[in-house]
């Protein structure tokens, strides 16, 4: 049995796509005995982490551009910021549609994402005179963040 595990691991390390195809074929054939369970579990766990990370990154980008649009008086940039806001909102909505269990994480991730967004806008040289608030001044509700134009 030790040799089988070593061979499976070697395939995983040597050719990831071939390993995926092998796992899929074994699952379809219900050949559970010969699955590379350790690497399969790791990959499934990573999928969940990846979705969470994407939500956090998209929320940070959304908040960064909301901060710019709300507090930075550069009308020539408004259109670009608003396009990014719409795209991040669309992608967050899509992610939650396909994985509804991400929705409760939104509130959990908000402070970290806001901190990241604040760090980014405060680093930008063109915004040194802008006084960004230390805390989000508007509704943190998921629906509001994904639908409200806070600058109006």
Quick take:
The chain contains 6 helices and no strands.
Task: Tell me what you see in this structure.
Helix content is 74%, strand content 0%. The protein is elongated and about 60 Å long. Helix 1 packs across helix 2 (16-28) and helix 3 (37-71) packs across helix 5 (103-123). With 152 residues, it is an all-alpha fold. The chain has helices at residues 2-14, 16-28, 37-71, 75-98, 103-123, 142-147. The chain has 6 helices and no strands. It has a domain at 54-147.
Topology readout:
Elements: H1 2-14, H2 16-28, H3 37-71, H4 75-98, H5 103-123, H6 142-147
Helix pairs in contact: 1-2, 3-4, 3-5
Gyration radius (Cα, Å) is 22 Å
Number of strands: 0
The succession of helices and strands, N to C, reads: HHHHHH
Stretches where pLDDT is under 50 for at least 5 consecutive residues are none
Mean pLDDT: 92
How many helices? Answer: 6
Percent strand: under 5%
Distance between the termini: 66 Å
Secondary structure class reads mainly alpha
Shape: elongated
Which bin fits the share of residues in helices? over 70%
Q: What can be said about the biggest beta sheet?
A: none
